[in-house]
Amino acid sequence: MNMCTWHDARQSTAWLTLAAIVSLLPVARTAAADAPDFERLVAALNDKDSRAREEALVALGETREVRAVAPLLESLKHPEKFNPYWVADALSQIGPPALEPLLAALKDPDENVQAGAAEALGRIRDPRAIESLMALLKQGPSEPPPGAAVRKGLGLMLTVPSAVSRALANLDRERVLPLLEVAMNDPAPQVRRRAALTLGALEDKRCLPLLVAALKDKDAGVRAGAAEALSGRPGVGGIRFGWRSVVPEAVEPLMEALKDEAPEVRLAAANALREAGDGRAAAALRRVLEDPNQGVRLTAIGALGNIKGEEALTALIAQLKDRDEKVRSTAACALGEQGDPRAVEPLTAALKDPVAGVRQAAAYALGGRVSGTGMRLESEPRFGPPSGAVIVPALLAAMNDADAYVRSAAASSLGAYKDERIFGPLLAALKDADPNVRSAAITSLGMLRDPRAVKPLISVLNDKHEPVHTHELRAPTGELFGYVSGNREVAARALGQSKDPRAVDSLIAALKADDPDERRGIIAALGFLGDSRAFDPLVAALKDPDSQVRSVAARALANLGDPRAETPLTAALADPSSLVRREAKQALEDLRKKLSAPAETPEE
Question: In terms of residue numbers, what domain contains 464?
């Protein structure tokens, strides 16, 4: 999601730039772009506007020309300007002609170039890359140490080890597996660790004996890598991939690894057992709650949260009284994951903990399990609807907490309960001084689908003084995370959830918003409401300067189920943006299915 809000002057400049790039995209998709057009695409990689740079990346990839490889590789040297995964995707679009320059790029002195080239080679899937990738696995730079920050530039960092492992996993495993087996006996611990992580990425049970044996390796880093590989979600440098679930045969070896002398091995083993959710590990994890390493303890608590049963429940409730506030807050989250009604009383008591972070964790834990996506979000009480009799009064009291994070968590959790008592306090929270609290209240009002909420939500949608701001989230361990958004966009999505036709005219009027993120939210809401009044505005939105807005408009048109949408959606198949073309193609398929399906019974 683009997190920027443009001022009027910058907005007009950005749209002009995008219009220029967009005009070149049809040319880029021909067999060969003319030299002046190609040079303009290359020049656009230096544009000040990120959206213009993104469109130029796509266009260069769609030229399918080997001369586009060099400027794309050059862009990898600037992670502050380019998402490395998008660059790799553009390189992979060029296909086999890019093979030789990409293999050469694996030896580039810049690690960002090496990583991007490896990622692209994995997507091209040419087995001729195996030898060079194996050489880089053995000789390339080290991955960041466990727990190191991996965010950089635009928020994503692609490391050489992660890219190489993923690339090898995408290639011919019958050739790759024997090479990795040899690498597991390499004298260098770093090579053995990388080989172990790559084995985990192969999703092949033939790797299991090799990884179990590596849990006894003399090097702690290799043992930790083997445990991570067995987790079902192995990763290098913060990038996760691999088996979709822990192989059952790995559980007992991982339980044994909880006794390892090295804390990084115990941590990796506990994390793997958290992914497993296997009741056999409950007793072993409970013993780890006394581990001297805080990270191991917190991970073991999380693992117990994925295990049902008396032993795990009793252990977690006891942790709510621990001296360490991070332990208490993590235990609250874990109890919420378990969803055992016997945890309701201790969690409501934790809403009075002296530490705000613990109160926040308890408030979230007492909320609902969210399912669905977009405006189809649903929230079901974690502890079952009957628990609301105890939980709702406790959360309503938390709405008056002095800490804004606690109020926000309480407002968010109340959306799971269909209780007459919560509407008034949520409505009042729309006036809270903290924008995060207002955002949570808006979302919960949308999930309630209470007709009384429509007019207040329309007021938020029309409030030009409601600023775009950073939504801040506080993790149980105390770290702060944030993302930029606007409550008008949140209100638009809540109105979509309401399914109330009274919202349509206000949403259409709000389509004049300057912020493209707002326009996307409004368009998505109109599509979800499915009202025919939105047809013409949504067709017009297919011409929006922002490609992401156009892509959402395509899906929204399909949601209307109007046969007239086939013509504009067919035209959108020729859109300059690959994202829009992809969404238009899917939208056409969805529309045709909707038109041929029996009429649905209207919702009550």
Answer: 347-495
Burial 318-338 (b: 16+ CB within 10 A, else e): ebbebeebbbbbbbbbbbbbb
Is residue 17 in some structural domain? no
8 A C-beta contact, residue 79 and residue 157: yes
Give 221's Cβ-side CA count (13 Å radius).
Answer: 15
How far is the C-alpha of 37 from the C-alpha of 33, rounded, in Å? 6
Which runs of E-coded beta strand occur in 297-396?
A: 368-371, 378-381
| Partner residues linked to 470 by β-bridges | 484
Does one domain contain both 491 and 381?
yes
User: Final residue of a domain: which of 475, 495, 515?
Assistant: 495
Cα-Cα-Cα-Cα dihedral sign, residues 534, 540, 545, 548: positive
Burial of residue 230, with CB atoms counted within 10 A of its CB: 0-12 exposed, 13-18 middle, 19 or more buried: buried
User: 559 and 478 in one domain?
Assistant: no
Q: Which of 495, 527, 543 is the last residue of a domain?
A: 495
Contact 571, 543 (CB under 8 A): no
Span 43-87, pLDDT tens digits: 989 988 887 888 889 889 988 999 999 999 999 999 888 999 999
pLDDT tens string 386-412 = 888 999 999 999 999 999 999 999 999
Q: What are the beta bridge partners of residue 378? A: 371
Instruction: Report the candidate in 231, 232, 196, 201 with the shortest Cα–Cα distance to residue 214.
Output: 196
3-state secondary structure of 400: coil
Asked if 390 and 458 sit in the same domain, the reply is yes
Relative orientation angle of helices 160-170 and 173-183, to the nearest 10 degrees: 140
Same-domain status, 486 and 524: no
Do residues 409 and 363 lie in contact, with contact meaning Cβ atoms separated by under 8 Å? yes
Single pTM value for the model:
0.81
CB 145 within 8 A of CB 117: no
